[in-house]
Design brief:
By secondary structure, this protein is mainly β. It contains 7 helices and 48 strands. The protein folds into 3 domains: 10-389, Neuraminidase (6 Propeller), CATH 2.120.10.30; 397-513, Sandwich (Immunoglobulin-like); 521-632, Immunoglobulin-like (Sandwich), CATH 2.60.40.
Length: 640
């Protein structure tokens, strides 16, 4: 969906585990792709045109690594105005250390406890950096379980401290190794206040801390602009976490992506939060919303009445579906305020990005067509005048690819011409209408190595990447163009085409062997002798191999499945399950066993190692047998 009211710009996202980052225009057309050397959760376009990604990495526009600093990072990171990288990380303590901090031993069933660590990194070289500031959860704990410990206190009187026993009992072991106690998933930086905002999922809260502190102050409770060191300056969303409320007072439910709305945008200074609505069993809300709140700021601190909870009690703005449970993203996700006042929302596990107005009307929507990558963690929209876009060619990739491929020869011709470029298979039909694109496309890919296939596909020998044109293609000035990313393993062959939805028969198909040389050699060997049988295909036997040859051949000749029945001299040579039939069934697909080159079709099949009496072979289609040939081998074919 792309209504005229939508904010025009370019949207950046990465499907998790894809290793790719996409920049699309408002029509959903890819205008730039980064092929990355890892699988980032999150990508952000910097104002210098580089791409900041998870893993403390920066890439240029061509996907070349500019900076790669090895330090444990998760979920979020950002570039600060001073050029440093603020990175969300983990800190671990052992079960014994957690108990020494007053944790209830009965709530820790794992060897370790994991919590939040933030580092500020100053890049000093392509793979180097210096940590110039850091903050850790475990420097700011309180507990009312064990009076013998130094951090013992009255939790309700110290909302600036983090109760080490909150939510421990609900949390289970992560991979059997540690308790993921807090699960912070986002951070933001406010330069004017020199403060950091954290989104803490398992506390269902947002926190604000002082960044103006030095190393000693960040670990203590005094110093910095606020005078409170590294203690929490503000928290909101779940007063149960500091014992000043019940579930009825909870406002956030495992949220994501809380951040200050930047200056110059509607709502500047307010906080925008993706409120997922999920929680521990029995506490979940069951629907998602995007909430905007105004902070009770008081200089560098935040107002809190004696015995009360942090405000606000009301939201400035919220978006939820009608009915509410029609919009529910139970994990990941995010939101961004746009210059026109609309809000861009990422529903992560649905791989869906959409824009809503202040009134909640949807004016733009995009669903990732490569569904199955698990999620799109967060997306960002950039205005056309954003400095980071200046060095990029923003011509829609469909148009760029079309101009590129039509200048060369296709690897196959059928109803659609097929081209290979930039790791994609490009389908082109010069004179096309919507009807040509409505039938579902099939794409079967045979790898060089069977180990590259998923376990469940190895028996078939190929992967299936069937797709719909509307997800991968568009109409360009009367031509149909579709681009399908190919897997990153070495490909031996592919078969593609379209099917009739009424009877699943092929409307058209094409078989492409990327390296036909072994089949050229087989053809030369076969052509040197006489065939053992002639039909639509001539059949030759040489070097323990049956070779099928058609001198004047088209794609249609390869679309039907081949059957191959082998009668042995001794029934005992057959596999157990074939003995009652009296012959072995070696049916095959041309695209796995053949190649089309120089107008010829050639397929080869290795014959079994036992003596053979006779062979019957041919092709069959939806209506039955297309052609067949049968021949005897006299006294039997000698063993190989």
């Amino acid at each position: 969906m792309n209504e005229p009211e939508a904010f025009d710009g370019y949207t950046l996202f990465t499907p998790r585990f894809s290793g790719l980052a996409y920049l699309i225009d408002n029509h959903g057309r890819v205008v730039h792709t980064w092929t990355l050397r890892h699988n980032p959760r999150l990508v952000k376009l910097l104002d210098d045109g580089n791409l900041l990604t998870s893993g403390n990495r920066i890439f240029d526009a061509d996907g070349n690594a500019v900076w790669n600093y090895r330090y444990l990072q998760h979920h979020d990171l950002l570039k600060m105005p001073n050029g440093n990288i603020l990175s969300l990380s983990h800190v671990f303590i052992s079960r014994e250390e957690a108990i020494a901090l007053g944790a209830n031993p009965g709530s820790i069933a794992c060897p370790a406890l994991r919590a939040t660590h933030i580092v500020e990194i100053r890049p000093t070289g392509p793979v180097d950096g210096e940590i110039v500031w850091q903050w850790s959860t475990f420097d700011h704990t309180i507990q009312d379980f064990d009076p013998e410990k130094s951090n013992y206190g009255v939790v309700v009187d110290h909302p600036e401290r983090i109760d080490i026993n909150f939510a421990l009992a609900e949390e289970t072991c992560s991979r059997g190794r540690h308790l993921n106690w807090q699960h912070a998933n986002a951070l933001d930086y406010n330069e004017d206040l020199d403060q950091i905002m954290l989104t803490v999922r398992h506390f269902s809260e947002i926190w604000i801390i002082d960044h103006s502190t030095n190393a000693e102050e960040a670990a203590g409770s005094a110093g910095g602009n606020s005078g409170k060191g590294g203690d929490l300056l503000y928290r909101w969303g779940n007063p149960r976490a500091y014992q000043r409320g019940t579930l009825a007072d909870q406002r956030l439910f495992w949220p994501h992506n809380a951040h200050w709305i930047p200056e110059g945008l509607p709502g500047a200074g307010n906080v925008l939060i993706f409120n997922n609505g999920s929680e521990y069993p029995g506490m979940e809300r069951g629907y998602s919303s995007v909430d905007e709140i105004s902070l009770p700021a008081d200089g560098y601190n935040y107002r809190l009445d004696e015995g009360s909870t942090y405000g606000p009690n009301e939201r400035v703005w919220t978006y939820a579906a009608d009915p509410p449970d029609a919009f529910y993203a139970h994990r990941s996700s995010g939101a961004q305020r746009l210059p026109n006042g609309d809000t861009l929302i990422t529903a992560g596990d649905a791989e869906r990005i959409f824009e809503v107005t202040r009134e909640g009307e949807m004016v733009w929507e995009f669903v990732n067509p490569e569904l199955g990558y698990d999620l799109v963690y967060r997306a960002y929209r950039y205005a056309p005048d954003y400095p980071g876009l200046r060095g990029l060619d923003l011509t829609p990739y469909y148009q760029t690819a079309y101009r590129t491929v039509v200048a060369g020869e296709p690897v196959a011709r059928s109803v659609f011409d097929l081209h290979l470029t930039d790791g994609r298979l490009v389908y082109v039909k010069e004179e096309c209408d919507q009807e040509d694109a409505e039938k579902r496309f099939f794409l079967h890919i045979a790898p060089e190595r069977m180990d590259d296939l998923l376990q469940e596909r190895r028996e078939a020998g190929y992967s299936i990447f069937d797709f719909e044109f509307r997800h991968y293609g568009m109409l360009l000035n009367g031509a149909c163009v579709a681009l399908v990313p190919l897997p990153d393993y070495s490909i031996a062959a592919f078969r593609t085409g379209q099917r009739n939805p009424q009877d699943e028969s092929d409307l058209w198909s094409a078989n492409v062997r990327l390296n036909p040389e072994p089949y050229r050699a087989a053809y030369r060997a076969a052509a040197a002798g006489e065939p053992v049988a002639r039909s639509v295909f001539d059949l030759h036997m040489t070097d323990g191999q049956l070779t099928y040859v058609k001198e004047e051949c088209a794609q249609e000749d390869t679309g039907h499945r081949f059957f191959l029945h082998i009668v042995p001299e001794r029934t005992d040579d057959l596999p157990q399950e074939r003995r009652e039939h009296g012959f072995d069934n070696l049916d095959f697909d041309f695209f796995l066993n053949g190649a089309l080159f120089d107008g010829k079709c050639v397929a080869t099949v290795s014959l079994p190692e036992y003596p053979v009496v006779s062979i019957r072979t041919g092709q069959f289609g939806p209506q039955g047998e297309v052609w067949s040939a049968e021949f005897a081998l006299g006294g039997g074919m000698p063993p190989l």
